[in-house]
Amino acid sequence: MAAKKQYTAIVLGASGLVGKALLYQLCQDDKYSNITCLLRSPLAQRDYHDPLNKIQAIVIDFDYLQDYQGYFTVDHVYCCLGTTIKKAGSKKAFRRIDFEFVHVAAQLARAQRASSFVWISSVGANAKSNNFYLRVKGELENAILTMPQLDNAAAVRPSVLLGDRKEYRQGEAIAANILKLISPIMLGPLAKYRPVHAQQVAAQMISLQVFK
């Protein structure tokens, strides 16, 4: 019997809410043999469970992400990078992280011929939106999904995320509490606006990758 193929992956943003959930699931997934994480700061051991030593964690300066192109020679690229305008400090800084860094990651995935590229967008993403956050997310979707020679690119579009964050985000916490209360009546077109657990988003990201 032929040995089952194993896959390699790179994760950007593994220390965030979805990133941590994703890293946990990848470590438990026997389809993956090696997981490279590019991070701003070292992973805290309490944040992941890696009994088979799959993780290679590398601290980098994302302003020079293009210098780490060689690490993108993997099967699957997962991009969980993202912030808020408040945390970034300005719209310009927010766009730098949520658009430019993710766009560069997609270009590196293409250059190294990764099998697939999956990233986190947002429900309501629209390049023509009057909302700056949703407009940036929509512009990024347009830029990546029309990128030539980038095979199998896909975005997940979660609503408000549920889970334990390192930092407290008051606006998201209030929205999550309200949406949890009314979630049972959010049916049909409104269902996509239900709050979603980080673990569910991570599982969806894995399901969108190409295994061949």
From TrEMBL:
Pfam families: NAD_binding_10. It comes from the Bacteria. InterPro entries: NAD(P)-bd_dom, NAD(P)-bd_dom_sf. Residues 13-134 form the NAD(P)-binding domain. This is Epimerase. It comes from Glaciecola petra.
